[in-house]
Amino acid sequence: MTVTGKVRTAPSTTRTKRREPGPGKRVRKPAQGATRKSPAVKAPRKPSAWLNRLIILTGAGVVTVAALQAYITLQSIPVEQVTVTGELEHTQTDLIQDMIQPALVGGFLRADLQRIRLELEELPWIYRATVQRRWPNALEIDVVEQLPIARWGDSGFLNHEGEVFQSSSSQEWQALPRLDGPEGSAATLVAGYQRILEILAPLHLAVAQLVVDERGQVQVVLEGGMQLLLGSEDFLERMHRFVAIYRAELAARAEDVERVDLRYKKGIAVAFTEESSRVAGI
Questions:
Q1: Between 144 and 170, residue with greater pLDDT
Q2: Where along the chain do its domains lie?
Q3: DSSP label at 103?
Q4: Within 10 Å of residue 100's Cβ, how many Cβ atoms?
Q5: What per-residue confidence (pLDDT) applies to 257?
Q6: How far is CA 196 from CA 119, 133, 220, in A?
Q7: 30-40 per-position pLDDT tens digit
Q8: For the residues 227-250, what does the mean pLDDT come to?
Q9: What span, in angstroms and rounded, lies between the C-alpha atoms of 218 and 186?
Q10: Partners of residue 138 on adjacent β-strands
Q11: Roughly what angle, to the nearest 10 degrees, separates helices 186-200 and 235-245?
Q12: What is the CATH number that goes with domain 170-280?
């Protein structure tokens, strides 16, 4: 039997699933309402070139003023201490300090060290002077006195460099050997004098006087009065000849020898005192 009629179909309860986007696919966002754009941030302005110059000039001016003030301050510092060092026998420290006072009027930095040195070295007994600043307010003076090794003429003295200097206290040094020679010969004479001392040292003989005349003739007077005539040439060789003769012949009668003439090329001539000649029956 066939039954005919309308069949009602129930509505489907199945929901359509949302497809997930595959890998690498961008997801579209739903459209939103219009948004307000934020204003762009402007970069700060760099200082202009003239402003940079102004800052630099201002800084340089401050530094210059500070340096000038410091310099003025240093210039006004007085010399509060003067120290004198060295082995001083003939020069008084107080004399040195009083003498240099005029050079210290300008203060510590303005003190004329060159002027002080030259004035000190003009003093009779000062051979060399060194002047130095000692911060913050002192001067240090080191003095080397003259070292007299012989008298020069009637009133002068000779130092170890053969330089002639004068002194008011010449009486203290009358025991020194006396050297005499033409003007300008002091340095050469001192050098010869020192060589003669070396040659005579083994004999324990000392020089009382060394004279060089205008012709260059050299004469030595030993302590005790013995005279050595050396001539103008090869006087050192003649001194060695005297040493040999003295050891061999003259040492035993040294007190009786008045003069030894070494100006001969070979040999010597010896003169004895009159008293010794009479005793010997000569």
A1: 144
A2: 81-145, 170-280
A3: G
A4: 23
A5: 95
A6: 36, 44, 9
A7: 555 545 555 55
A8: 93
A9: 13
A10: 81, 134
A11: 20
A12: 3.40.50.11690
Q: In whole angstroms, what is the distance from residue 28 CA to residue 13 CA?
A: 29
Which structure tokens are listed for 33?
């309402």
Q: Which two tokens stand for residue 146?
A: 């003259």
pLDDT digits (tens, 9 = 90+) for 164-205: 988 766 677 888 999 999 988 999 999 999 999 999 999 999
The H or E element that residue 63 is part of is helix 49-75
What does the alpha-carbon distance between residue 82 and residue 93 come to, in Å, rounded to a whole number?
10
What is the CATH code of the structural domain delimited by 81-145? 3.10.20.310
- Given a contact cutoff of 8 angstroms between Cβ atoms, the answer to whether 141 and 82 are in contact is yes
| Predicted local distance difference test score (pLDDT) of residue 281 | 35
CA 186 – CA 165 distance, rounded (Å): 11
Least confident of 60-64, 82-86, 236-240: 60-64
Strand order in the sheet with 138-145: 81-85, 138-145, 126-134
Structure tokens at 180: 């005499």
Other C-beta atoms closer than 10 Å to the C-beta of 91 total: 18
Give the distance, in angstroms, between the CA of residue 107 and the centroid of all CA atoms in the same chain.
23
Residue 40 has a pLDDT of 55
Give the span between the Cα atoms of 175 and 150, in whole angstroms.
9
DSSP letters, 154-185, are TTEEE-TTS-EEE-TTGGGGTTS-EEE-STT-
Supply angle C-alpha 21, 22, 23, rounded to 5: 125
pLDDT tens-place string over residues 204-213: 999 999 999 9
Q: Which tokens go with 165?
A: 């200097």
